[in-house]
Amino acid sequence: MTDVAAHAAEYTGESLPAWSLPKDAVDRIALPVEWPERVTREWAWGGSTGAGVRVCILDSGVEADHPLVGGLESAVTISLDENEEAVVAEDVEGDLCGHGTACAGIVRSLAPECTVSSVRVLGAGWTGSGAVLLAGLRYAVEQGFDVINMSLSTTKKPFAGILHELADSAYFRRTVLVASAHNMPVESYPWKFSSVISVGSHEEPDPLTFFYNPSPPVEFFGRGVNVEVAWLQAHTVTVSGNSFATPHLTGICALILSKHPELTPFQLKNVLYLIANNVGGGT
Amino acid sequence: MTGEREPSELRAAVAAGVVGSEESFRALLAAIVEVARSIFGARASSILLLDAETEELVFAAVVGEGEESLLGMRFPAGKGIAGWVLATRTPLVVEDVRKDPRFAGDVAEGTGYVPSGLMAAPLLHDEAALGVLEVLDRPERSLFSLHEMELLGLFANQAAIAVDLLLKARHARRLLDADAGELGVVAELAGLVDALEGPRRVAGLRLLHDLSETLGRRPGP
Fold first, then answer.
1. Scanning A1, A203, A277, B70, which has its CA 20 to 30 A from the CA of A86?
2. Beta-carbon contacts of residue A79 (< 8 Å; ≥ 6 apart)
3. A185: cis peptide before it, omega within 30°?
């Protein structure tokens, strides 16, 4: 059994294989969501604060006491032991760069009442960074976060297969993986997988403006240019890059999931499409 | 290492005899950062290379502010803005980096020059991240745009190709040095013939051809 199948079985509580729908089971999958005639931003997140949604920042760590971050639910760091096995430990160092704090601050600015956790996958040594990234993502998926912000990628092809399995696993477990598309023309992962929400930058100043891209693999464009963000030691700086567009979409996902917790990643992606500025959400 | 030598190592040694020296590659890197600085109207630009053994980033080319003091300087690859860019293989632009107290402190300690703004892109070749291209202090009047991000990526790609060549040349040079002259004579021959012109080049090539036939001839019964 693959990891994906195992996670799917764990999630549905059914043994495999059972991928069919007998006539008398149709009622069992009746959906509680009542969809409006037209999905609007007001329906999607009107009145939402992100409360009840657990967001994970997979990055360089997060400065927990930064005023724009406002505390963390948990903070761990991932490293490899001498046998190349992943070790998860409480993170006492915080942010080693500023980047993770920036992402956490952006999410918090859009969804002030969501909980934010940090999984630090950078700074534990250069050589194992790809393996640490994988271990960090695996840990985050296992924790059952609602949204994982992944403003980074790897170019190492040997990791692509496992990353793909993890991304699918998250998708089936109702964990939304929001991943930065690469700014440069290189092959990198996991943003190219269709089970994640991939994000590039636009140049508009409004944090809630986002566009659907009808020419994938990049699916959405969020605010990513000249963004004032939280940085180290309670400071702020102005930054640009797809890695800052990504937490904007993460924050928007947190708002929607807070109001509509029953949505699967598939349904959430459809809502994002329907309320994107170039589809109908801008009006 | 004789006897177990890979054919590719011999080729690398020959290449070392005919391709540019370490100095000419350094000049190429310096030219790239000079153009990057000029195009962006920046105060400084630099290329940092990853030393995988020590897990450090080393300033391999610097132009503008800090030019004399930064070259050869090292710092841990796992930290800071350049470290993040290297590890995540993702470009990053920070406009007012002076507000980053750790960054300002570390850099000022080494150079006395703390940039206000910083653009950084990874040097990617195949699956490897070889280093980081930095452009420091663009003119304050202009807001950053996606066009500049694209331009930065193009420069980083060009620099990555140059760095890959530099690393291959270094590898070949190490092979020559390690062999105590064994491969050196092959490299020297290749270099000498490559430098010849006219009839001397024709004669030199003929001589090498004869040598090749003689060495390749199987001993008689």
1. A1
2. A86, A87, A89, A124, A125, A128, A132
3. no
Residue A262 lies in a domain: yes
For chain B, the structural domain boundaries read: 21-168
Amino acid at B29: L
Flag whether pLDDT at B108 surpasses 60.
no
For B198, counting Cβ atoms within 10 Å of its Cβ (0-12 exposed, 13-18 middle, 19+ buried), the class is exposed
Residue B190 in contact with partner chain A when CB distance is under 8 A: no
- Which residues in chain A are contacts of B99 at CB distance < 8 A? 231, 235-237
> Looking at the domain assignment, is residue A5 inside a domain?
no
Q: What span, in angstroms and rounded, lies between the C-alpha atoms of A56 and A138?
A: 12
- The maximal CA–CA distance of chain A, rounded, in angstroms, is 60
- Token pair belonging to B9: 């190592």
Q: Tell whether A9 is covered by a domain.
A: no
Three-class secondary structure of residue A266 per DSSP: helix
pLDDT tens by residue, A220-264: 999 999 999 999 888 899 999 999 999 999 999 999 999 999 999
Question: How many domains would you assign to chain A?
Answer: 1
pTM summary value: 0.84
Strand pairing report for B92-94 and A197-202: unpaired
B41 conformational bin, left if phi > 0, alpha if psi -120 to 50, beta if neither: left
DSSP string, A4-56: HHHHHHHHH--PSS-----GGGGGGG---PPPPSS--HHHHHTT---TT-EEE
Query: Interface of chain A against chain B, CB under 8 Å?
Result: 60, 96-99, 122-127, 129, 151-157, 180, 182-186, 188, 201, 203, 225-226, 231-233, 235-243
Residues of B in contact with A240 (CB under 8 A): 92-93, 95, 144, 149
Is 3.40.190.10 the CATH number for B21-168?
Answer: no
Please identify which residue in the block is written with the tokens 């090292």: B74
- What residues make up the domain containing A125? 48-281
